[in-house]
């Protein structure tokens, strides 16, 4: 159920008695602009640290404790060509808590999102300075997770557009450039101009939720739009290598797929990528990891918003060339149809089984509501997914796999290994 | 056998079969998923024991429980992964310090998958060839952990606290220890620890409890097991402080230095009601003193001593218990000094009763939230399945804990003689 609260601000309510919790998510969406990523990310830190009503982190945490240990966080992400800032609050269901937590939760969100701690029309300077320094430290420490480091490097190698090259949370250089005035401007723009989608899931009354969500006081707006789907035309194969102090190397590959987001061959691509490397039954897992014993992990994932398929592996540095060949061989087998009907069916069963289970999770259900609100071609229910997957044939899988075009190869290897 | 827990709104069917296997079933008819965990009271620390039918203590290579977990999936002509996969189910397994668990999750063909789970875990198949190949895969896993600075710090800390106890060894073992694993050693450990009386089966989901129990009972009755035999474990409780190494510095490829402090528990913590209550009290104590609504946290955060990466934790299990603190920080010495200063006060802490009441309520709220997802509920039930207090009884334990329990916990744990400090510095750039 999607309700327009005011121009550019929508509420999506999913009433259900299944869960012990109520979930409130407030999403702010703006066209992806790499120059704004760092500021929007810093904004999440500043907002979740200090508000007029809860001026210290201790006061804010104490309020969450009063709300029966509610889980709260603000994060960022990309939905293709759009950048998203999301505030999420998970509350114990009112019935279980024997308390009106939903109303209190909306009060809390209104305070945090619309009444930050300010001094003379700016964010508190001490909060700004400390949170920016902490975020810079955090971004600098991301390379301690080598899998993340390699994945981000592959995306930087693969994409041309700055908004897609950069991670959704920005860069250290971007953060260093954020000023107090700039952050305030970013905040004002987000609050007054972004498309807003509010999702509420739980044992709730839609009319009551509508009144509570209206109480957030978000003004009407005419949001800027950008395409959700990003389709970068492939150019020549790009290669990148970094040598660092590691024992295990990471070999990541980026492929382009021509298939449109939720378009005609969408389900065929979902099945093809799952068969290639999406599950423990996949060719990458069984042949590269299990049979050849050449990787601790080897997997493929589809990013349908960006026409992008990413393969990630963790390997012995000495095996990089051999593993790249093994990966190419597995994709060639999908293209050539060298897989049994039985395996194809098991891959499809695994997809539908996993999908059905996902409907047991509030996070997934709330995410589906958001996607449904944003993308006209998105199909919300399980049945659409199941029938879409069921209709995929062996020939469909081969055809869409043949359309995968290797575009970038990134190797994070050891200093000693080469 | 069926007990209703109105506070969490769940019914638990708890039955121990003739062969000693404990079965826990929670029906969740409005969910699509069924999630099952087959757990063994055997983990990374269990490297010393008297093998079943023998009389002499043996010592296994580190990492054998985890190796066994990997190898059980592989059979002469198939892989158990594929049997689950054939129905669309997903399966996995994990090994901890004191337990190993095998699991599946599915929305269909629960009976088939339950049979697969019971059968593959209870039908070991190890050959020289398959054991040799597994060393390649696990070797890669070990390398991956070695590249994780947080992992290195954690085991550095445990190495200081437990110089002679296997909890300080990585659950996966080392490249040299797994090289020593043989099919014979795997069989010996298997027949000793994988007795039904040393195992539990937890099933949570869209199932009929009686039909599920009947299926499990029939499956077990059709198999032959050696008589249930108490296990003679050789790894003793380690609560001594005399051999603690007080300090370690590591040089690793990190962007920022890290500081970690740990406190070794000096008395055994049982898995009975008293022990469970003590554990709950310790966790609340840590939240009171170091949680993000505490005055101390605010002060340290404002001073830049800590950031969001600050974490404290309490682990209590068979033969060991310890508290850990860790954080990225520009000045590791200053942070560890500050932590040590709090510990030095022992039971002389300032604990605000109003905040205690609020934190108890918040703790209960987090507990309810943790019971939302079936995998989380099943994991909590399974984790408590070798103890006498089940996961649904934890709510009452949390309600019963008093402020006095927290002071006693502080008095029992906070002792400078039981403390170790570990610092990680960025390695010099080449």
Looking at this protein, list some descriptive labels.
heterodimer, A: 418 residues, alpha+beta, Cytochrome Bc1 Complex, Chain A, domain 1, 2 domains, 6-stranded mixed sheet, 5-stranded mixed sheet, 13 strands, B: 430 residues, 7-stranded mixed sheet, 15 helices, 20% strand, globular
Tell how many strands the DSSP assignment of chain A holds. Answer: 13
How many distinct folded domains of chain A? 2
What would CATH call the homologous superfamily of the largest domain in chain B?
Metalloenzyme, LuxS/M16 peptidase-like
Structure summary, number of beta strands of chain B: 15
CATH superfamily of the largest domain in chain A: Metalloenzyme, LuxS/M16 peptidase-like
Strand order in the largest sheet of chain B: 1-2-3-9-4-8-7
Distance between the termini of chain A: 57 Å
| Rg calculated over all Cα atoms of chain A | 23 Å
CATH fold-level name of the largest domain in chain A: Cytochrome Bc1 Complex, Chain A, domain 1
User: Kindly state the mean pLDDT of chain A as a whole number?
Assistant: 95
The CATH architecture of the largest domain in chain B would be: 2-Layer Sandwich
Give structural notes.
The complex is a heterodimer of chains A (418) and B (430). Chain A is an alpha+beta fold. Chain A folds into two domains: 2-214, Metalloenzyme, LuxS/M16 peptidase-like (Cytochrome Bc1 Complex, Chain A, domain 1, 2-Layer Sandwich), CATH 3.30.830; 238-414, Metalloenzyme, LuxS/M16 peptidase-like (Cytochrome Bc1 Complex, Chain A, domain 1, 2-Layer Sandwich), CATH 3.30.830.10. In chain A, 46% of the residues lie in helices and 23% in strands. Chain A contains 17 helices and 13 strands. In chain A, strands 1-2-8-3-5-4 form a six-stranded mixed sheet, sandwiched between helices. In chain A, strand 6 and strand 7 form a beta hairpin. In chain A, helix 11 (266-278) crosses helix 17, helix 12 packs antiparallel against helix 13 and helix 14 runs antiparallel to helix 16 (382-390). The model of chain A has no long low-confidence stretch (mean pLDDT 95). By secondary structure, chain B is of the alpha+beta class. In chain B, 40% of the residues lie in helices and 20% in strands. Chain B has a seven-stranded mixed sheet, sandwiched between helices. A five-stranded mixed sheet of chain B has the order 11-15-12-14-13, sandwiched between helices. Chain B is globular. The N and C termini of chain B lie far apart (64 Å). The mean pLDDT of chain B is 95. Chains A and B meet through helix 2, helix 5 and helix 14 of A and helix 2, helix 4, helix 10 and helix 12 of B.
């Amino acid at each position: 159920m999607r309700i327009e609260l005011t121009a550019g601000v929508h509420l999506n309510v999913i009433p259900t008695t299944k869960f012990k919790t109520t979930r409130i998510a407030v999403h702010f969406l703006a066209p992806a602009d790499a120059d704004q990523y760092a500021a929007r990310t810093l904004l999440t830190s500043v907002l979740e640290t200090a508000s007029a009503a809860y001026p210290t982190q201790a006061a804010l945490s104490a309020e969450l404790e009063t709300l029966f240990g509610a889980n709260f966080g603000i994060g960022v992400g990309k939905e293709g060509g759009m950048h998203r800032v999301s505030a999420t609050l998970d509350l114990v269901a009112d019935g279980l808590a024997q308390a009106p937590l939903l109303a209190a939760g909306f009060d809390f969100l209104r305070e945090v999102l619309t009444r930050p701690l300010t001094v003379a029309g700016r964010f508190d300077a001490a909060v700004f300075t400390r949170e920016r320094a902490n975020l810079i430290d955090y971004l600098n420490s991301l390379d301690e997770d080598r899998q993340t480091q390699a994945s981000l490097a592959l995306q930087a190698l693969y994409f041309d557009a700055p908004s897609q090259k950069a991670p959704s949370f920005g860069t250290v250089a971007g953060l260093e450039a954020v000023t107090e005035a700039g952050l305030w401007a970013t905040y004002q723009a987000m609050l007054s101009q972004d498309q807003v989608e509010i999702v509420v899931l739980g044992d709730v009354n839609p009319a009551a939720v509508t009144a509570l969500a209206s109480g957030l006081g978000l003004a009407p707006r005419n949001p800027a739009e950008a395409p959700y789907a990003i389709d970068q035309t492939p150019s020549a194969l790009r290669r990148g290598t970094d040598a660092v102090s590691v024992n295990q190397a990471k070999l990541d590959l980026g492929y382009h797929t021509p298939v449109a987001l939720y378009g005609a061959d969408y389900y065929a691509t979902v099945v093809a990528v799952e068969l290639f490397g999406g599950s423990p039954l996949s060719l990458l897992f069984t042949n590269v990891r299990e049979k050849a014993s050449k990787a601790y992990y080897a997997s493929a994932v589809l990013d349908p918003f960006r026409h992008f398929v990413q393969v990630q592996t963790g390997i012995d540095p000495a095996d990089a060339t051999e593993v790249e060949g093994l990966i190419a061989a597995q994709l060639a087998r999908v293209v050539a149809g060298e897989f049994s009907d039985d395996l194809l069916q098991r891959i499809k069963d695994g997809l539908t089984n996993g999908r059905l289970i996902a409907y047991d999770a509030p996070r997934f259900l709330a995410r589906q509501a958001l996607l449904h609100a944003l993308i006209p071609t998105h199909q919300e229910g399980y049945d659409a997914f199941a029938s879409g997957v069921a209709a995929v044939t062996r020939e469909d899988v081969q055809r869409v796999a043949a359309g995968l075009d290797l575009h970038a190869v990134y190797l994070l290897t050891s200093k000693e290994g080469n | 056998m069926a007990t209703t827990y109105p506070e969490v709104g769940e019914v638990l069917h708890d039955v121990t079969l003739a062969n000693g296997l404990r079965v826990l079933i929670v029906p969740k008819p409005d969910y699509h998923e069924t999630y099952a965990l087959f757990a063994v009271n055997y983990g990374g620390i269990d490297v010393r024991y008297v093998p079943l039918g023998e009389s002499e203590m043996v010592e296994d290579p580190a990492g054998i429980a985890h190796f066994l977990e990997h190898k059980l999936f592989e059979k002469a002509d198939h892989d158990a992964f594929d049997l689950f996969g054939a129905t669309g189910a997903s399966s996995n397994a994990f090994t901890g310090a004191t337990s190993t668990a095998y699991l599946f999750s599915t929305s269909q063909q629960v009976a088939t998958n339950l049979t697969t789970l019971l059968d593959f875990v209870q039908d070991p198949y190890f050959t020289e060839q398959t054991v040799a190949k597994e060393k390649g895969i696990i070797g890669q896993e070990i390398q991956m952990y070695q590249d994780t600075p947080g992992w290195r710090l954690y085991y550095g800390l445990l190495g200081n606290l437990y110089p002679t106890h296997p909890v300080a060894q990585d659950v996966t073992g080392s490249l040299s220890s797994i090289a020593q694993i043989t099919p014979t050693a795997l069989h010996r450990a298997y027949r000793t620890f994988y007795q039904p009386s040393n195992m539990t089966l937890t099933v949570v989901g869209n199932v009929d409890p009686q039909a599920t129990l009947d299926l499990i009972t029939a499956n077990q009755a059709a198999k032959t097991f050696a008589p249930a035999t108490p296990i003679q474990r050789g790894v003793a409780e380690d609560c001594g402080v005399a051999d603690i190494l007080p300090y370690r510095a590591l040089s690793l490829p990190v962007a920022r230095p890290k500081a970690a402090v740990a406190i070794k528990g000096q008395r055994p913590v049982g898995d009975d009601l008293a022990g469970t209550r003590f554990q709950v009290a310790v966790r609340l104590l840590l939240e009171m003193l170091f949680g993000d609504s505490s005055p101390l946290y605010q002060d340290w955060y404002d001073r830049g001593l800590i950031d969001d990466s600050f974490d404290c934790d309490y682990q209590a299990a068979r033969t060991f218990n310890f508290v850990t603190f860790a954080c990225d920080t520009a000045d590791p010495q200053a942070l560890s000094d500050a932590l040590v200063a709090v510990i030095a006060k022992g039971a002389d802490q300032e604990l605000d009763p109003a905040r205690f009441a609020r934190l108890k309520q918040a703790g209960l709220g987090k507990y309810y939230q943790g019971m939302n997802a079936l995998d989380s509920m099943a994991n909590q039930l399974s984790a408590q399945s070798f103890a006498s207090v089940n996961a649904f009884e934890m709510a009452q334990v949390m309600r019963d804990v008093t402020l006095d329990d927290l002071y006693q916990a502080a008095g029992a744990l906070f002792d400078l003689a039981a403390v170790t400090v570990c610092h990680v510095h960025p390695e010099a750039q080449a």
